[in-house]
User: Fold Cyanamide hydratase from Aspergillus ellipticus CBS 707.79.
Amino acid sequence: MAADAASETTYGFSPVPASASILLATDAPATPPPFIAVTQTPIPSTALAKRINEYAEANLPEPTYNHSLRVYHYGLAIKQYRFPDWNFTDETYLLACLLHDIGTTEENLNATKLSFEFYGGFLALEVLQRGDSGPDAPKEQAESVAEAVIRHQDLCEKGRITALGQLLQLATIFDNTGLYADLVHPSTIEDVSTHYPRLKWSHCFASTIHRELEIKPWAHTTALGVEDFPNKVLSNTLMASYE
Assistant:
């Protein structure tokens, strides 16, 4: 069943180009990105956001948890600068950020033969709709987050993706490799990195990539290059001074 207009707006189902290069070539602004401080993109205080934030903090290693919150703040800075008409809620985006790497923990890597993004999407769907310690997410919100988590490393040049999924892709690739450096003001990077330190994230994430490929040599991460992708992560010069 197709998502209705309300859910497309609220939960980020609006279809946008899957190709970041095509998307970013459209209506490029004449001005550089503004400085957007962490205080200008606050974490939502809803009961659902608090529940999932507590779940993520309890289940993710600190470097991964910090990465998830950097992706949140970078993503909203990118959205304000380039995509102000994307009107999905900050809460929905936060949920996607907090859960996008839930499949990378050592426990979850070993719990399944599925690639970490796919298993992470299933976990996100379950956690969001299992409100044993707080409220459930609405079904379509949970599905939008799961879709974004499953596709956050699905970097395509053809087709479409949800607006939520595209923003998650842009912000994760930005934090992981330094790509799209022109989308975020340097002072925003400094402020976000001060609030959520990288803690040698590049080496941590590269090790996670190698660990998954050791366990699952068929994993979807190989679509980004068996050696190319971890090398790009380790060669992230934009973030090197914050490692």
Remarks:
- The chain has a mean pLDDT of 95.
